[in-house]
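INFO  loader      accepted 1 record
INFO  loader      residues=366
INFO  predictor   begin
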Amino acid sequence: MDAGTEPEGSSRSDEEWERFLRESVAGAADSPKEPSARAREVTKRLRAEPGGAPEVWRGYTPARPKRRTGWYAVGLLASLALLVVALAPGWTLDLFTGDDSDSPAQAAGTARPNRVPPTESVQRPTRDEPFRGSPAADWASGAAGITVPKAGAVGWMSTAEVERALARSRDFLVASGLDREVLAGERPEKAIALINPHQKDVQDLLRTAFRTPGEKNDPLLLFSRFRSSRTHLVGDVVKTRGRLTYREGERGALQVTADVTFVYPVTPADASGDDEIVRTIVRRELVLSWDNPDKVITEPGTFSIASYKYDMTNGGCGAPTGYFTPPFGTDRRADEAGTEIDPYDRSTPVGRGESPEDECARATRS
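INFO  predictor   done
INFO  writer      dumping tokens
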């Protein structure tokens, strides 16, 4: 008999036929082109068994995707959350506690916060670090801490005119609360020049305040001043945080509201070395009215003062002198009987106005 053939009537086992069929499907060189009747019968039986047709070598059957989309998304979000916590833990804490208090991460004074800044560790200020241990250490310096909003047309003013008025409103805050000569006790001429000279009540205040200061005619209602013979500022920096807002006021006027906190580190004028440093903290709220000259008597480039309020701590108690008088040494004990306030809490309205309370406020921290 010839090799590779099978005579009729021969009897092979079912296992041999199955092996033969598998090799044929795989493409063996000597596989027959047309299987016999018995081969077809065995093939039919194999296909009917669990598992179906024989597995094809080197074949690729795409796996049916399992529906795990939701779990993949949860895993991805969890990974991103862990990354955010690692990179910005403080921001993440604020996100879950709802804290939008004034903080380094928040733009200075963009909106009134609804919580108090966190308490800093107790650290004494030094001449090199006069804001050490204070929330103000992370605040901007000078005019940079006063946020000015984007201008838009209001009332009688165009967008460009509103922009100029906002800039001049901030100029007034700089001239009244940051000018070095004014802080040293000089008369605030630049600031006064921006006030409407036809506003009688304010002009009366200005004429009296610097000559004979009193409760209702105190220059500190509008300006920050220290007596240079008694008090010196430490360093060249005053920390600030606050903002300007605006809306349309009476008779179509542009009404600008300024709410700004100033932090002044000071020391006795005769101090030397690392003597006591006190931070005088003043928060002012001013409402400035840029009036329509067709309806109100005014001068170009000036505003009327609609209202003024301020809170002050570590600025002295007693009869007004026209200057802040920070308490140093034993003088600080005299201030300990006043009402306690947190001077860094900007979540509440400014409380002191044209008729200041007799009681002197005491800072819970400085």
